[in-house]
Design brief:
The complex is a heterodimer.
Chain A (H helix, E strand, L loop, with lengths): L2 H7 L11 H17 L14 H9 L4 H8 L3 H13 L3 H22 L4 H10 L4 H33 L7 H31 L16 H21 L4
Helix pairs in contact in A: 2-6, 2-10, 3-6, 4-6, 5-6, 7-8, 8-9
Chain B lengths: L9 H25 L4 H15 L4 E4 L2 E3 L4 H8 L1 H17 L9 H23 L5 H26 L6 H32 L14 H23 L1 H11 L2 H9 L7 H4 L2 H32 L1
Antiparallel strand pairs in B: 1-2
Helix pairs in contact in B: 1-4, 1-5, 2-4, 3-4, 3-5, 3-6, 4-5, 5-6, 5-8, 6-7, 6-8, 8-9, 8-12, 9-12, 10-12
Classes of the chains: A mainly alpha, B mainly alpha.
Chain lengths: ~240, ~300
């Protein structure tokens, strides 16, 4: 599964990995806001200058540049549809802007996601004031993602080995089979959640989840926030300067 | 229909972001309050379930396969507020871990799929809950949730200035309609199978609404929010007079244009698009107001 790679990347110890998650989130939002407010007329030649910031972060984090660049390309299929729409409408510049803006934004989001383990990211969001209940749900979701997906895969394999696989023609019994499989998966997940909760209670769960990370920002984090915001604003201003 | 970053205009990002932040905060308070403490693990594991259920493909015909989106299914089984929280968690994980949908655009995606889609579908389910067949209520609610998501996403993109040639737009709406029908059919199948496994799984709150007037207004709001938004983006001139009559045209224009004086002036100067923005805002406000009203009335009745 492809997000194992991200999991491995996020466990590094580089200067970027060690930064406070809040600092990375703030810098990311500043960068994304700068890109989002840039006029489309900056495409195609000026916009790529924004790449400097995410690329610097990726290099400083010692992540494989090619691998990260390839992963960020997951936005391209969605973009492709609207690039075609724009080209059909005769708006070439808009097409270029959509492509560049979404790819640059994905690259920046990935630079943060690939240097921050999910639990640490959530600790940062908690410290920034996100609703704690939602963060718990996200944490449980992330924890049980693999378990449940694997179960679904087993069920799919079992169905295929009994002759349910193959073919792309619509058949109402296959729709029925799929819905029954989903219902069974639902029931199993529900039971798993109850068992999980009972296990938590028996281990002394008091109704409050402790996040494993103590956040202690230092000067490096302050520098990252200042640099992130300053460079984003600087690039944003430079975009609209007369040539 | 996860919108990535780089597509939506700052005005749309700000509006949907604010709406989602408020909505999710409210819904997570509700979900936390209305049910036992065991809900955080339950909602998390059910979120993982929706992820996994999306791996079970079924053939659509013409060589393609579809999969469940799941928002409506969660609303019919866990209840609307928990479903909103779970869908929000799913979208957050998709944006952060899978780069599926943008980080800034998370507000818009949450608004479309977790809030409007889930609540819109649930509202229809409640409205039709009194009819003889639960299947009809489930099918309509689940299909509507997909259509509401799709229409809102397309309208947001259109209002952000992404060009959409009518022919291609028609094709994508057709695809969404097929998806909506399938979502309805699969959700009915799943609900029926669940009821066989354990009737307790399906929320029995599908009792008919006692207030027909409220029901009619709520239905009109869903209709307005989806079809109205659609018309707003497709044929802006049609809403022009409506927006002016309601007196929101000028105000919405002022609100939306003020924070972005230099932004893409050519596009913002387009009067038709401004009217469309006003129309969408009006429809959205009406929808929100009716939902709020409904919540208050239901709470009173339950007490």
């Amino acid at each position: 599964m492809h997000h194992v790679v991200l999991e491995r990347w996020s466990r590094g110890t580089s200067i970027i990995h060690r930064r406070d998650p809040r600092a990375k989130i703030i810098a990311l939002v500043a960068f994304l806001a700068a890109v989002a407010t840039t006029p489309d007329s900056c495409a195609p030649f000026r916009l790529p200058a924004y790449a400097a910031l995410p690329l610097a972060a990726i290099l400083a984090a010692r992540l494989p540049l090619g691998g990260v660049a390839a992963r960020a390309a997951v936005v391209l299929p969605f973009c492709g549809v609207f690039v075609v729409f724009s080209l059909v409408a005769g708006e070439t510049q808009r097409a270029a802007a959509l492509l560049e803006k979404s790819y640059l934004s994905a690259l920046a989001a990935l630079a943060v996601a690939a240097t921050t383990p999910v639990a640490r990211f959530l600790a940062g969001l908690e410290a920034l004031g996100a609703p704690r209940f939602l963060l718990w749900v996200i944490q449980f979701l992330h924890r049980y993602l693999f378990v449940t997906s694997e179960q679904a895969q087993h069920m799919r394999q079992a169905a295929a080995s009994r002759g349910a696989g193959g073919g792309f023609r619509f058949r109402s019994w296959r729709l029925r089979a799929a819905s029954s499989a989903i219902a069974v998966l639902f029931a199993r997940s529900y039971r798993r959640a109850e068992a999980t909760y009972r296990a938590m209670l028996s281990r002394g769960f008091q109704g409050r989840i402790q996040l494993l990370y103590e956040l202690s920002p230092d000067w490096g984090d302050a520098l990252l926030v200042v640099l992130g915001i300053a460079v984003s604003i600087g690039l944003r201003v430079a975009m609209v300067l007369p040539a | 229909m996860h919108i990535p970053d780089g597509f939506l205009s700052p005005a749309i990002l700000a509006a949907t972001g604010a709406a989602s932040a408020g909505g999710v905060y409210w819904m997570s308070r509700r979900a936390q309050g209305e049910i036992e403490e065991s809900r955080a693990p339950l909602l998390g594991v059910m979120g993982a379930f929706v992820f996994a259920a999306q791996m079970i493909n079924f053939p659509v015909g013409a060589g393609t396969t579809g999969h469940l989106l799941g928002g409506a299914l969660l609303a019919f089984t866990l209840g609307p507020a928990p479903a909103v929280v779970t869908m929000t968690a799913i979208l957050a994980v998709q944006a952060l871990v899978f780069q599926d949908g943008g980080v800034l655009a998370l507000g818009a995606n949450v608004f479309n799929m977790a809030i409007a889609g889930v609540l819109g579908g649930y509202l229809l389910y409640r409205l039709l809950g009194g009819s003889r067949s639960r299947g009809i209520a489930v099918f309509t609610g689940a299909s509507a949730s997909v259509m509401v998501c799709a229409v809102l996403a397309l309208a947001e993109l259109r209002l952000s200035g992404v060009p959409m040639p009518p022919a291609l737009l028609g094709v994508s709406m057709g695809l969404f309609a097929v998806n909506a029908v399938l979502e309805g059919a699969v959700t009915v199948g799943v609900i029926q199978a669940l009821a066989r496994l354990n009737p307790g799984f399906v929320k029995e709150s599908a009792a008919p609404l006692r207030r027909p007037v409220l029901a009619a207004v709520a239905l009109a709001a869903v209709f307005l929010a989806s079809v109205g938004v659609w018309f707003a983006s497709e044929a802006p001139d049609g809403l022009e007079s409506l927006a002016d009559k309601l007196g929101i045209g000028g105000r919405a224009r002022a609100i939306l244009a003020a924070p972005l004086p230099g932004y893409d002036a050519a596009w913002f100067g387009n009067a038709a698009v401004n009217k469309a923005v006003a129309g969408v805002l009006g429809a959205g406000l009406a929808f929100a107001a009716v939902l709020l009203l409904g919540r208050i009335l239901f709470r009173k009745k339950a007490a």
